[in-house]
Amino acid sequence: MAPRSFPAVAVIADAHFHDTGADFGFAGIKMGGHHITMRSWSDTRQSTRVFNESADALRAALDQVARRGIRHVVLLGDYTDDGQRATTETLRGLLQVHSDSHGTAFYALPGNHDIFGPAGRHHTKEFLGEGAISLSVSSDAAIAGENIIVSENMYCEGYPRGLNPMAAFGYFRQPEYRHWETPFGASDAVEDRIYTVTSPDGRNAYSLMDASYLVEPEPGLWLLMIDANVFEPRDGSFELVEEAAFIDSTAAGWNGMLRSKRFIFDWITDVSLRARKLGKTLLAFSHYPALDPFDGATGAEGVLFGETNVVRRTPVKAVGDALIAAGVTVHFSGHLHVEGVTRRGSSDRSVTNIAVPSLVAFPPAFKVVQASQQEITVETVELSALPVNDRLCEGYYRETEVSREKVDPAFSAGDYGTFLRQHKRALVRHRYFVKEWPADIVRAIGDKSVLEMIAPLVGSSGGVAAEFDSAADLPMFELIADWYCLRQGASLALAHIEPERLILYRSLALRLGHEPSTHDGSLPSFLGIFFGALGLFLDRAEGGSECLTLPFPVLGDVVPA
Fold first, then answer.
1. What is residue 451's three-state secondary structure?
2. What whole-number distance in Å separates Cα of residue 531 and Cα of residue 508?
3. Is residue 102 helix, strand or coil?
4. CB proximity list for 216: less than 8 A, separation 6 or greater
């Protein structure tokens, strides 16, 4: 008898939907006869994601889902820009219309941008008003000043209220589900999904809701949806459930799960045992990576830049060990906007983490999973060919005219992929250089070419110097931007980087790169480690594929907790 195959499942991570028609208490910028609730480019170039383009990208992804006849879609967290009330409500309506039109079922998980703690949090964002003048919109009435708008619609809700707009998308039982449960049992009532967590000093104890669930959308297919959005109480004295009383979930993820939600691992173990006994195909999902999605290729970052966001958000080895013991074999993650496949364990006991890129960061893509009882195939669907929204770019042009800043090349990009690659360049200059890079290294780079920068490494060796003659016209800044593109995009980045550059980068890595352990603080040492990391990024990219097939399930016994 042929192994049973299941209908395809689309996995969309980090859509960060921003509603350009949202009512935040101001008219917005008027473009082409329409008012747009538009975030500023000055904010966008400092963010690891773009804002205004998110609505077009999500609609394009859903169009692809409909065109392929896919009836099940996992939203892998950070489905909203920042959990704003107005944004979440609009997203709910958009998904419901798609569901009604195409019979699509959505299964959502919370990300750190969707829900905050038990009581939520305030947000203040920068927008473009009339005349492309920047103004701030805040949910906090205590903030006052010129060009500040106060709107309750900007507020991000906490648990459980923040789940309500998305209630029909997996968080609560629906009539069509063949099976649905939580770590606490069959009830979907909020009061039956509570756990207790205490600060290390024992002074602060909270009863919080966990939004994890197991759903069987098709006979024999189990989707294990894990809420890894962990809020850990801080030591000290705080007002009840105030925002400052909790450590932000952003850098916690699965590391925080080990500390504060151990009961989830017990549940996963039980689900895995039942799946094997009942012959179910089990796929696991959470917003946060369970293994290092860069597969060790970013080890140089901690040496060169200290504790960056990537370093802080990398899961420890114990996470993978715990999931292997619990019987998880395949786990999908978002959060870091990265393309990558990481595997840990042995041939008969292993877990594979499949990192899903974001729709609003380079490179924009989502995954389509086709599972059977013997294997799963994961296809990457890239959205780089989408047209650029000219109306939004016109808004950016007008903003730079008012601020008298230089026009960014992103505004004239020919397609969405190019726009996001240009955004990555802006991100390097306005975020990474400012917040992460040593100031003396940034000054040393200046406007120099790659050839000028590598002179201390090449020395007087004429033969080696001649090998890098092609680097004379390439600005070092361009190489750095491509370094970040390769870090995030892996195999998907290769088609976006000029072939002659890739040849040069490989030569630089082979000839001049070295291990992070040799760093002495000097510029030559910094460059050597930087080029060594470039080589690892190239290895990872060249070893990847836009279509992945994994044997499934991996044999081996679950180890009960």
1. helix
2. 6
3. helix
4. 177, 178, 179, 180, 222, 223, 280
What is residue 226's three-state secondary structure? strand
Q: Is 140 a member of any domain?
A: no
CB 401 within 8 A of CB 34: no
Q: Which two tokens stand for residue 217?
A: 């959308």
Return d(Cα 376, Cα 296) in angstroms, integer. Answer: 25
Residues belonging to the chain = 561
Burial class (CB in 10 A: 0-12, 13-18, 19+), 555: exposed
* 509 domain residue, yes or no: yes
Q: Provide CB contacts within 8 A for 95, sequence distance 6+.
A: 106, 169
The answer to whether the beta carbons of residues 368 and 9 sit under 8 Å apart is yes
What region does 303 belong to: left with phi over 0, alpha with psi -120 to 50, or beta? alpha
Q: Which residue range forms the structural domain that includes residue 458?
A: 417-542
Q: How far, in Å, are 170, 173, 225, 357 from residue 107 at the CA level?
A: 5, 11, 8, 18
pLDDT along the chain (561 residues), means of 10: 81 98 93 91 97 98 98 98 97 98 97 92 94 93 85 95 97 97 98 95 92 97 97 88 83 92 97 95 97 89 88 92 96 96 88 97 97 91 97 96 95 97 98 96 95 81 63 92 97 96 95 86 92 96 87 53 45
Q: How far apart are the first and last CA of the chain?
A: 35
User: Partners of 126 in the beta sheet?
Assistant: 136
Asked, for residue 434, whether it belongs to a domain, the answer is yes
Q: Say whether 305 sits in a helix, a strand or coil.
A: helix
- Find, among 359, 446, 401, the residue nearest to 73 by Cα: 359
Q: What pairs with residue 207 in β-bridges?
A: 196
Q: How far is CA 301 from the centre of its chain?
A: 18
Residue 366 forms part of a structural domain = no
Q: Which residue has the tokens 């000097």?
A: 522
What is the number of domains present in the chain?
1
Q: What secondary structure letter does DSSP report for 386?
A: S
Q: What 8-state DSSP symbol labels residue 220?
A: T
Q: Alpha-carbon distance 534 to 297, whole Å?
A: 9
